[in-house]
Each structure stands twice: as structure tokens, then as C-alpha cells.
Specification:
By secondary structure, this protein is α+β, with helices and mostly antiparallel strands. The protein has one domain (about 20-130). It is built from two helices and four strands; from the N terminus they run ααββββ. The chain has a four-stranded antiparallel sheet, with helices on one face. Strand 2 and strand 3 (about 100-110) form a beta hairpin. The longest helix has about 60 residues, at about 15-75. It is elongated.
Length: about 140
């Protein structure tokens, strides 16, 4: 009978080490969750800034193409150049188109239209310059 009792008695389970391990794992999971959230927010902010830049470049491209259409029509018809166009001494035509967040600078060389290219110009330069302002929100230590 005594043997049967010894056989069915259970030793107490020691949970101290297991509790510490589970606590450490939970803390690590909480830290990883916070880091994931912070990274996702930073990615969202960067994607929004990228979208804003793409939209401004797309607007500049559209405005430039519309201007080139006006310039092409003026060159083909022999009428006055559109506003913002300045004829240089070397014969090239320079234009600066102000935009909301920068300036589009275009330089074209007039030419005779041909079968392959019906345009009355050849693009020499197409540059979008945007204004840049440094971020002053960070209070950085200047070493003093």
C-alpha cells in the first residue's frame, strides 16, 4: 500500500525559473511590438514625403510639356515666343517657369521640323530646381 502511495504522489512543480523566462519573453515581445509600430510610422511619413515630391515633379513635368507645346506652335507659325521665353545670343531659347515649390528651367534650340521629329525645337536642358529649407526642429548639441 505504501508503494502505491509513493507511486501516485507528485512532486511539486517549481515555477520560479519558468516564470522568469516567460516574463523575459513577454518583455522582448513588447519591445519588438513598439519598435515595429515606430518603424511603420516612420515608413508612412517617408512614403508621404516621397509622394509629395513625386506630385510636385509631375506638376512640373506637365507644366513644362504644356509650355513646350506653346513654344512649338509659336516657332512653327513664326509668331511671338510665349511669356518667360528669352532668346539667347547663340540662338537658344531659355525659359524659367516658376512653380509652387521650385523653378523649372528649360533651354531649347530651334530647328527645322523633319519626318522623324515634327517638333520645331531640340531640348538642350530640362532642370527642376526646388527650394530646400533645413530642418530646424532638432535641438542639436553644438559642442559648447
Amino acid at each position: 500500500m505504501k508503494e502505491e502511495r509513493e507511486q501516485f504522489t507528485h512532486r511539486p512543480v517549481r515555477t520560479g525559473a519558468m516564470t522568469l523566462l516567460i516574463t523575459a519573453v513577454l518583455i522582448c515581445l513588447a519591445v519588438l511590438a513598439v519598435l515595429s509600430l515606430v518603424t511603420a510610422r516612420a515608413d508612412l511619413a517617408m512614403a508621404q514625403r516621397s509622394l509629395s515630391g513625386l506630385q510636385s515633379r509631375g506638376t512640373a513635368e506637365q507644366r513644362g510639356q504644356e509650355y513646350l507645346a506653346q513654344l512649338d506652335a509659336a516657332l512653327k507659325q513664326g509668331t511671338a515666343l510665349p511669356q518667360a521665353a528669352v532668346q539667347e545670343e547663340d540662338g537658344s531659347i531659355r525659359a524659367e517657369l516658376p512653380l509652387e515649390d521650385g523653378t523649372l528651367r528649360i533651354v531649347v534650340q530651334p530647328k527645322e521640323p523633319d519626318r522623324e521629329d515634327s517638333a520645331a525645337y531640340r531640348i538642350l536642358s530640362w532642370k527642376f530646381d526646388s527650394s530646400w529649407e533645413p530642418d530646424q526642429t532638432l535641438d542639436l548639441w553644438n559642442g559648447m
